[in-house]
Each structure stands twice: as structure tokens, then as C-alpha cells.
Write a structure and sequence with these properties.
CATH topology: Farnesyl Diphosphate Synthase
Bound molecules: farnesyl diphosphate, magnesium ion
Distance between the termini: 22 Å
Radius of gyration: 18 Å
Order of helices and strands: HHHHEEHHHHHHHHHHH
Strand order of the largest sheet: 1-2
Number of domains: 1
Helix content: 55-70%
Structural class: mainly alpha
Strand content: under 5%
CATH class: Mainly Alpha
CATH architecture: Orthogonal Bundle
CATH superfamily: Farnesyl Diphosphate Synthase
Number of helices: 15
Low-confidence stretches: 1-6
Amino acid sequence: MTYNKAPVDFSTYQKQCQVRVDAALELFLQTPRSELQRLYQAMHYSVVNGGKRVRPMLVYAACEALDGETERAQGAACAVELIHAYSLVHDDLPAMDDDDLRRGRPTTHIAFDEACAILVGDGLQALAFEALSDNRFNPSQAELRLQMFAVLARAVGPAGLVGGQAIDLEAVGHQLDQSALEVMHRHKTGALIEASVQLGALASGNAQDSSLRALREYARAVGLAFQVQDDILDVESDTATLGKRQGADIAHDKPTYPSLIGLEAAKHYARVLHDQALSALHGFDQGAEPLRALARFIVERRH
Ligand code: FPP
Ligand code: MG
């Protein structure tokens, strides 16, 4: 496989996106009154803590691929990161994966308490929809905003992220075949990644059916590649680099790509998916370079 040389300096692009989304996220995480200080402190702790911001980057990059102003995508970028942060807080709870380390720090239920962590997740999920509905951050026409709402709701609900988590919890200790593993990951990880690309495209105000179809194909490949790489890192990386416990999948007896098809085949599959993602973008011009660079980042990332 040969990667396309990305003309954007990806680390600069990533930094710019992180600064942009973090500035907006801060506005949603200001404590509105003293009685809520602990809840907001815990939400802030769970969101502003060194995440890679891959999903907001996908929002901005999809918007740029369709010549949209990234300012128009701020609400969507915040929304997907708020959902992602909520899902991590709940995923780490004792009733789920029972993890004590996330993004290099104690998980929210350890740093605060379990009830607080449940409310943090609930609060972040609601804030995501608030961010998407706020026309200062999402100046799209009302009808388009409603469409964006539906995209996000479907992706994070029982037919998406929540459904994927349910499959994940039921799969513990069971042998899944590759197609069952793929169904789980397309829901658990892929749905929000696909929604991020779709929301960025819609936020541009320039989305046509054909470009949405191509971007969906890109996002499906990238969404799965993200999870394949996540499984590889669980085997190959270390706790300090990952910021979460290395080997947690094995410890939890979770089915993964390396356990199912072997490490080398998993790496090959990640590269195949990367190439599929690039092929989906063949009709796009230079404006799609950030999306191309992101596909590469996703399969080359070390944490
Ligand atoms: C790592 O993201 C996270 C994933 C690969 C997604 C895992 C999916 C869940 C935990 C779903 C949980 C769902 C519910 C409903 C509880 P990342 O590498 O982008 O992490 P970062 O933001 O810390 O960089
Ligand atoms: Mg989990």
C-alpha cells in the first residue's frame, strides 16, 4: 500500500481543530449557578482532558471537503465530542467495563463518584443536542438543523452507539465471527464517526446526494478502520501511551480483530480499509485533503 502524501501539515491541522472545538466546548461547560458547581466540574473534567478530537476533526474536514466555512460546523463539532465523552464516561462505569484510567487520568466515577458519573454522561448527551440546536454554533436553516438532529439521534441511539454497546456487553466471553464483530463495531464506533462526517457535510450547506453518498462510503471505511486500529493498539501499545489500560480487551475477554484474525491480518485489514476510504474520495479535489490525512492518521495513530 502507498499512502497519498498529505499536503496539509496534519499536526498543525489537528492543533487548529482542537483549539477551535475546545474554545466552543468551554462555553457549554461553564457552571451556570453555584449549586451545580460539582456537576459542571465533573463534566469539564470528562471533556477537557486531552482527547484527540478525531470526531470534531472529521466534522470540520467534511465541511471543508464541500467548501463549507468551518465556523458553520462548530455546533456539530461540539455535539459529536460531547456524545463521545459521555459514551466514554458511561463505558468506564463499574456496571460496564469498570475501568479506572482514561486519557491518562482517573475515570470520572473514580475522580468523583458513580452517581455523579452517570449524571455527567446524561448531562453531556443533552448538551450535545443543545449545541446542535443553537444557531450561534449551527447557523444552518431550521429544516437542515432538524435533519442534523435526526442524524445524530439515530447514530447515538439504540440502532447506533447504544445498540453497539449492548452487543459489546453481551459478547463478553463469547466467540464472534468476523461479520458479527463488524456489526458490533459499525454500531459502537462506526455510527458516531459516520454521523460526524455526515454532520460536517450538512453543515457546509453544500451537500448533494452524490457527495453525501461518497462521504458515507469514506466514513464507513474509516469508522471500521478506527476500531481495528484500536484493537491493534490494545495489544501492541502500553498504558502510558494509550492513557487507558493496555490489554483491557483481553482482560475483559472481549472479541477483537487481533484475537479473531491475528495481529498481522488485522494490520492488513486496517490498510485495506484506509485504501477504501481514499477511493471513496476520488471525485473530490484538494479540499478533501484533511479527510485523506485523517484516514491515514486513524490507521497510523499510536494512541
Ligand atoms: C476511543 O476513542 C473510543 C472508541 C474506540 C469508542 C468505543 C465505544 C464506546 C466506548 C461506546 C460506549 C457506548 C455507550 C453507550 C456507553 P478515541 O481514541 O478517539 O479516544 P480519545 O477521544 O480519548 O482520543
Ligand atoms: Mg467498552
